[in-house]
Fold each of these.
Amino acid sequence: MYKKILISLALVAGLSSCDGDYTDWVQPEENTQQEAKEVAMQFTAVTDLIDLDKVEGNVVKIGDFTTANVQKITDAVYTVKAGDRSYGIPVAEDGTVTVDNLKSAVVELYGRDVEERTLEGNISAKGWTDTTDVQNQNLVVLLKTTEPVVIKVMPQPMASYYFVTGNPNNWTSSAVTPLFPADAKHQSLTTYFWGAWDVKFWYVDDLGNWDKAYGCEVDGCNDPNGKIIGQNAQAISSPEAGYYTFSVDFSTNEYTWTKCEEQFPAEYDVIGLIGTITDWGSDIDMTQVIGMDNAKTHVWYATDVQIPEGGEVKFRANHDWAANWGGQEFPYATGADGGANIVVTPGGTYDIYFNDITKQYLFIAK
């Protein structure tokens, strides 16, 4: 009974002290977030030419960070510029970048010509003075190089084939609507365009990757000409609805719209391939690309066509020789009415494309 009374008194005393104004605890210090300060950063770039055709793997070193009093570097970006264009390349803490990002920067700024390029720009990053807690923003400083970082790059030779996605093929990501090459720098597509958010296009190896689609800066831009961009690219529109030639100059990364004089081109039931592969007796029927609103686009394709070395082929309409086209150049050219047999070399398996308005043809080896 005595022990119970003592315990009761202790509990009452404890409750009484909680009701008072006495506080026996230390006020916690406020952790006021300080604004990150900017610190000069040093980056020593490599001096040797980076030949992308000889790099093994998908990373390449462009230099080294040498900033003092920084334990860790994150979010580094090398912003290279050429004229009024710029491209941001993420840089790892060990001074490496991916080959893909370096390729994209060269293409974005200079096109796909295989010429030595000098990339110049600054690197910005976050620097951490203590790596034990990278979430604590009080430990971070903003880093930026004070002198331009300069590297020399030789682009990798690559097949310059591009495919359109947009209204002329219902925005498919399949390889059915190419830009037809005139030469290594100039390619085009002639078909019907709707005058509203008509096209983007991909390099052949990037089909379906929207982050790498080419277009214009302003969504739906319908200027008669403009700049091609590869980052955050928007859909390009023809100036108005009708038959146009959409041309791209890859040496300047510019596009141009040219309205066709003939706005009612001839239509064919089928375009076929005929030649030694069929003993000149029958056709391999090609498929016409169908655009928005079931529109006929006058662009035809056939896939996985096997042609031996030195095989000869022509294009013809409606299984008849009344309208046929050939040429003396391979793998692309503009066919001539009743032209020469197209000699295929080397032999192999090809995807084949034909535009019945312009008579342009294209063979892409698989």
Note: The chain has three domains: 38-154, 162-259, 271-365.
Amino acid sequence: MRKEWTLFFTFLKIGAFTFGGGYAMIALLENEFVERKKWIKKDDFLNMVAIAESTPGPVAIKFVFLRLP
């Protein structure tokens, strides 16, 4: 499957079952990105969280833009 579709379905799965907005998703995103798919290291994830929280806008959307090459 293409990277874009994998990323889309990952966020769809997390977003469809998470209530409370982007901050409620952070633990699920960490589990999915760091533990299950091993896309990034934990330190890189924590840096992404810090950048995403320091800029205006929805947290979950900024994660996509920070990760895409």
Note: The chain is about 75% helix and 0% strand.
